[in-house]
């Protein structure tokens, strides 16, 4: 039975990945969208990681009374979560009206303006992360903006770079901006989500600037080559990061990566899911038998998360900080250890089956809200890049602590989105932005304005293909706007 369950989890992961690929190939969904990043996190942390205890028959340190029975129930819950999540994100209940209520712009910045903004946002990110972080109360909020600005800065240079990959000047600027922001966000950091935000911001900008409008055969090579560098860097970083050294500087991180880094072990650690599924199963077995439910605590804690403990001394602790004590972990500092329980584990500890449905609907509405912001106008970086400024949080939500990641994601995206809308108004009279253009006009540019598509002589051939032009909905669709045209029919 354990073998069959292992096969089922792998098939469910493959079907989920296949759905993402199919919808992209038929022109129904963008390859890079918030929903797909969430699904990628779900595959790694909740599906493939479930196969490890089934294969090894080792559930330490979270001992299960009935591995087969609990894994079988976990498989049912995972499947139900996916179905409800996909249905909710497709229909767009609540999310679509909220997204349409948000202000937007059709302003397209010139290349010089995007490069200037990239340097300005990089400087702002450094100040927020290195200086303002020490200001009580304000520093933490400022740090969220620092990571967001760093990701948007990388997205801006990616937006410029994608149509002109071989321009040496642009390549040099990209290296400066990306390395500066990467060094900034990893200073004093242990987690990987900040680094993912920077790398993800770069690729997100390149995709929506240019790759989105190319046929598949012309996308695979560039996106693989560009993405390979940050993936290798992330693997090296993962292989040497230490929970005992949370205050490493960027230089110390680099030295550790050079002397101790191992790409192979880092990649394995990235893909093993950190044993998240096992922790979810343990929570399923022990609630409500040994521990009482904390009903829908993800929602409650996300609401109270911004309140500092200096103001609220008895503020409840999130699930991730309690698991070590609940499981009576030995030879660890239970007071400091945080453990991702997985979104399924959250549901198991916070109400059971009804919480599973509520959380699936909630996650579906959140990702649809963010994807809908992009669909409103995918042709301007002032709209697109803020939505992709916290991709590390999106990947981390299926792992947990979901309440924290959810708050940081929404705060970072909505906050930076509004900042960019204000910025548009401030620079609108500078002459370095285009007048507002229709979506059809923008689509004809292939993501690059004709006024600067060949300004440096290195721009790639432009295509007339208008993947996603207008995103008009057709009668009887599943709630997602249907792109007009096929991504592989340029």
Which structural class best describes the helix and strand composition? mainly alpha
Percentage of helical residues?
55-70%
Q: What is the H-and-E element order?
A: HHHHHHHHHHHHHHHHHHHHH
Mean pLDDT metric? 86
Radius of gyration: 22 Å
Care to count the β-strands? 0
Shape call: globular
How does this model look, in words?
The chain is mainly α and 490 residues long. It has a domain at 100-272 and 361-395 and 416-427. It has 21 helices and no strands. The radius of gyration is 22 Å and the shape is globular.
How is this structure best summarized?
The chain has 490 residues and is mainly alpha-helical. It is 61% helix and 0% strand.
Please describe the topology of this protein:
Elements: H1 2-25, H2 34-47, H3 51-56, H4 67-91, H5 95-101, H6 111-130, H7 138-161, H8 168-186, H9 193-209, H10 216-240, H11 250-260, H12 263-271, H13 276-286, H14 297-304, H15 323-326, H16 342-349, H17 353-376, H18 381-387, H19 391-396, H20 402-427, H21 439-444
What features would you highlight for this structure?
0% strand; 61% helix; 490 residues
